[in-house]
Amino acid sequence: MRPGEERPVEGGACDGVSELELLKLRAAERIDEAAERLGALSRAIWSKPELAYQEHHAHGVLTRFFECEPPAASWTVQPHYQLATAFRAEWELPGVPAVPRPLHLGFLCEYDALPGIGHACGHNLIAEVGAAAALGVKGAMEGLRGPPPPVKVTVLGTPAEEDGGGKIDLIEAGAFKNLDVVFMAHPSQENAAYLPDVAEHDMTVKYHGKASHAAAYPWEGVNALDAAVLAYSNLSVLRQQMKPTWRVHGIIKNGGVKPNIIPSYSELIYYFRAPSMRELAVLTKKAEDCFKAAALATGCTVEIKGGAHDYYNVLPNKSLWKAYIENGEKLGIEFISEDAVSNGSSGSTDFGNVSFVVPGIHPYFYIGSEALNHTEQYTEAAGSQEAQFYALRTAKALAMTALDVIFKPELLEGIREDFKLKLQEEEFLNRAE
């Protein structure tokens, strides 16, 4: 096969439309055929929001969806895969030789919610898009005539994105081993093939002092609340020397029990974000110094504990972006400019850790609302009927991009090369002084 040549697809072209484009149309049709079931899946998850690692209802809804997806038993489903609320569903065409190793594509579903405001980040739609895109690829491949290429499709249910990092747990358990490319998409206020999601580290800080009567003999006490307030102020002062791309935000979770008792205990929770793991290490060291200084000033002892997992920055993959944008534009998706991408705000996701172990794409998509994520208004939008059009259109773009990966060897080569170069660049940055 010559460089730049598509893998041949049996069945012939029609009216000037290439075989691959016909497969893409079939993928979109398959998603439309399943639209009612997919919408019900999303609404079932949205209507019963569950927090990180507690998504038992969502887990059951998703595993039943794949277990019952026609034709019967077409997906091999593993409930409670490595984690109580994770799952794995796999499909490959029967009779396809296992050698050479199949091209292994992964589609990721998230489904945890936020405390108090439910699916204010639209993870019900992420689950729907991941499932829909996988169905689209499966439907297209089942329509092939002649010997199909060896391809395996895996859907991974990844809990606890909002708190804990379920994808990182699954990475450590080997769930991403042998995956070649992974796909997922996240609801937003605009359409972007990539946003620069940043690295994140969280800390819990506990100050221990000594209780005493606040009016009769306050000099006998050691005020843990004072330590928390000083730490908060220290970080506020530090902001003047922070880079514009750094973010620090936190709360005082415990500040005492009664005004006439010198607080013997206080607790803070902070999140720290930076564009790379190297910069994040610099920022967190400065923050730790602020916390320790507050303990020294007040005479308290301090415990500083990091979260179970750091979220890495998402590595971009331009080859995947370009393919996704090309397919999305065919469907009428209007993407924000590259300048808007570079200058836009972003958060953090455990998909960043995935992007360090396997090439992938994590685009953002508009859902028909100008509401901002993590608000009650976005919760309402994520459960609306209007969001369905945008979610399924995004799923079609992902499925079409996956088909490009299957049938365009030069694209897969470019994806792997981009991944390799970005890893090398990140390693260099992390080693730099």
From TrEMBL:
Catalyzes the peptide bond hydrolysis in dipeptides having basic amino acids lysine, ornithine or arginine at C-terminus. Postulated to function in a metabolite repair mechanism by eliminating alternate dipeptide by-products formed during carnosine synthesis. InterPro entries: Amidohydrolase, Bact_exopeptidase_dim_dom, Peptidase_M20, Peptidase_M20/M20A_hydrolases, Peptidase_M20_dimer, Xaa-Arg_dipeptidase. This is Xaa-Arg dipeptidase. SUPFAM superfamilies: Bacterial exopeptidase dimerisation domain, Zn-dependent exopeptidases. It holds the Pfam family M20_dimer. GO terms for molecular function: carboxypeptidase activity; dipeptidase activity. Residues 203-296 form the Peptidase M20 dimerisation domain. The lineage of its organism: Eukaryota, Metazoa, Chordata, Craniata, Vertebrata. It catalyses: N(2)-(4-aminobutanoyl)-L-lysine + H2O = 4-aminobutanoate + L-lysine; beta-alanyl-L-ornithine + H2O = beta-alanine + L-ornithine; beta-alanyl-L-lysine + H2O = beta-alanine + L-lysine; N(2)-(4-aminobutanoyl)-L-ornithine + H2O = 4-aminobutanoate + L-ornithine.
